[in-house]
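A quick aside before the break. I want you to see a complete sequence-to-structure record at least once, exactly as it would be stored in a machine-readable document. Don't worry about memorizing anything.
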Amino acid sequence: VDGYHNVAQSYLYGEGVERDMRKARYYWELAAEGGNVDSRYNLGVDEEKAGNYERAIRHFMISAGAGDDDSLVAIRNSYAQKLVTKDVFEKALRAHQKATDEMKSDRRDKAVEYLQL
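That is the input. The structure line, written in tokens, reads:
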């Protein structure tokens, strides 16, 4: 899955291949279907740039629900621009918080504390 994301990024930036947004999108879709949150966010950005706000929000909601901070910011910005309702924004906040709470653990906190020494 991460390999598809990496290939998409190569097409996006033209690294080792000719820049091709159509191919970047194709590989983001494959990666997103496999659960890659960064690719899901990138699809949302791509849809937003194309003016497909409903599709963009669907992508952002999925990735925010997986704990992606950038997607939550995108939904917050959409709320500020009145492109989504307060209910949609609150749903995204709750899903994001649940995902981040599930990622917490004592072992992870101790490892972070150890690495910051």
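Two observations worth writing down. The first helix runs from residue 2 to 13. The two ends are 34 Å apart (CA to CA). We'll return to this after the break.
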